[in-house]
User: Which sequence fits this backbone?
């Protein structure tokens, strides 16, 4: 699958002087994302971004698969056996050898954990002579894309303790960890025995700064050279700082509402459609995220060119129509203007978290917009873990979060997790659609573009009409880049910070 983005690569970005480069051989990165663990199943998305560990399969910024720790791969005529030929003369940061045995062991552990690989119909993963072999229960054409996911990076055998629990950040990437202070900080140095091209910079620091104001100040003061995920006010302010370049790139991340479709107030698609009709997406996009073009008309944004369907009737704002739908479902206005049915007030709890600073603001906007149609919404802002916890124990009613639908280069990996049978922590809850599940399986199993397109249409139309998740905003990936920092790549798939390409101006 191919993605098309404007201004994705800022090649040779250099302003007038490298005043912020300090010693010229180091880069400091700040983002909101903590590194809570050495386990790729938990923190793989940061481990991969920092190029500490690598995958069998890599991908470029357009989602095109390319060799990683595997130089090539092939599939048998019946589609049931995939063979990945491993790169030779690769060593881990601790000096141990990368080989088929430890690669297969790492991938078996990934398969046993919750994640994209667990959704693949794998019957076995085993080592061969310089190869790793996957045996499948049925054909699954999307397997290479899943092996580019952050949870399938390959740690060294020495990174796992005697109980099989990941305990150290040791990989094959161009940077190795010298200091790990979870969950906030990492110190990295260039790995001089790296199998590929040597990075220009010698060291890097990573800081997880949860507050958007802090990240903007780090960029403004020069205490961080590359800062990701800015809030609108910080992004606007930094645009006027001459020592900083600001960038916004459309990405396949969508701010969505997860809806418990088994809740008695929400189990009818008409109720979920009413929630959607009550949302002023244009107002939220203009006033809160400040990218008006980001108002979502469907789940898949235009940057997902193979999934975005221009023929769909767009999601719109119409509070009067929303209220009419709820009246059709038997709701009536109570004395305090909140809807009542069978003696129950229409009250819901929305769960969200502050790591993305716009989420609590949008939650407050939804609180006002839903009250206007008679829904009493309380907002619970806490740690992001309250969302998957609520999914598991059934207490979640609605949740607000951002979901990246290109965590694998082919979105099917994420969509199988979210909308396959049984749903997922960050996808459908209490909603199963047999036609969608079968269509997702067809997409994953075939390379035939006509069959894929037909099945994609089934998925996109069903999600648009039944709304197990309700899209609100299509995201822009924002970053601030220090003066003098060159060859910065803003990856729309958010797989890499591009450390190995970065250099300071001479």
Assistant:
């Amino acid at each position: 699958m191919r993605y098309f983005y404007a201004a994705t690569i800022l090649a040779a970005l250099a302003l007038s002087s490298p005043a912020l480069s300090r010693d010229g051989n180091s880069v400091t990165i700040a983002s909101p994302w903590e590194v809570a663990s050495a386990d790729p199943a938990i923190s793989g998305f940061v481990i991969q971004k920092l190029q500490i560990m690598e995958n069998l399969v890599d991908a470029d910024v357009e989602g095109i698969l390319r060799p990683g720790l595997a130089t090539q791969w092939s599939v048998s005529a019946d589609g049931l056996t995939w063979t990945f030929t491993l790169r030779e003369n690769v060593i881990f940061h601790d000096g141990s050898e990368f080989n088929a045995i430890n690669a297969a062991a790492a991938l078996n552990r990934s398969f046993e954990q919750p994640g994209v690989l667990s959704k693949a119909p794998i019957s076995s993963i085993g080592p061969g002579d310089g190869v790793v072999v996957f045996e499948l229960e049925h054909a699954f054409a999307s397997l290479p894309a899943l092996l580019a996911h952050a949870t399938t990076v390959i740690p060294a055998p020495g990174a796992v303790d005697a109980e099989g629990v990941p305990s150290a950040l040791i990989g094959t990437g161009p940077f190795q960890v010298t200091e790990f202070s979870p969950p906030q900080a990492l110190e990295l140095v260039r790995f001089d025995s790296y199998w590929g091209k040597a990075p220009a910079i010698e060291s890097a620091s990573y800081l997880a700064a949860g507050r958007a104001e802090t990240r903007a100040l780090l960029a403004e003061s020069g205490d961080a050279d590359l800062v990701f995920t800015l809030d609108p006010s910080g992004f606007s302010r930094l645009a006027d700082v001459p020592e900083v370049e600001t960038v916004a790139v459309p990405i396949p991340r969508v701010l969505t509402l997860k809806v418990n479709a088994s809740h008695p107030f929400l189990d009818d698609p008409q109720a979920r459609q009413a929630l959607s009709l009550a949302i002023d997406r244009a107002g939220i996009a203009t006033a809160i995220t400040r990218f008006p073009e980001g108002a979502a008309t469907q789940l898949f944004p235009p940057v997902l060119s193979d999934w975005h369907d221009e023929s769909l009737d767009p999601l719109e704002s119409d509070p009067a129509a929303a209220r009419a739908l709820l009246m059709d479902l038997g709701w009536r206005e109570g004395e305090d203007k909140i809807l009542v049915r069978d003696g129950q007030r229409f009250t819901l709890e929305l769960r969200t978290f502050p790591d993305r600073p716009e989420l609590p603001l949008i939650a407050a906007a939804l609180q006002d917009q839903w009250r206007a149609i008679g829904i009493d919404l309380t907002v619970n802002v806490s740690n992001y873990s309250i969302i998957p916890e609520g999914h598991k124990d059934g207490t979640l009613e609605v949740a607000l979060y951002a979901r990246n639908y290109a965590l694998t280069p082919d979105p099917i990996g994420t969509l199988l997790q979210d909308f396959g049978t049984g749903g997922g922590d960050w996808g459908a809850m209490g909603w199963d659609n047999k036609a969608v599940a079968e269509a997702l399986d067809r997409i994953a199993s075939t390379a035939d573009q006509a069959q894929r397109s037909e099945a994609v249409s089934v998925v996109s139309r069903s999600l648009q009409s039944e709304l197990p998740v309700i899209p609100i905003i299509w995201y822009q990936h924002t970053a601030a880049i220090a003066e003098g920092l060159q060859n910065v790549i803003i990856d729309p798939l958010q797989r890499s910070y591009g450390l190995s390409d970065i250099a300071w101006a001479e």
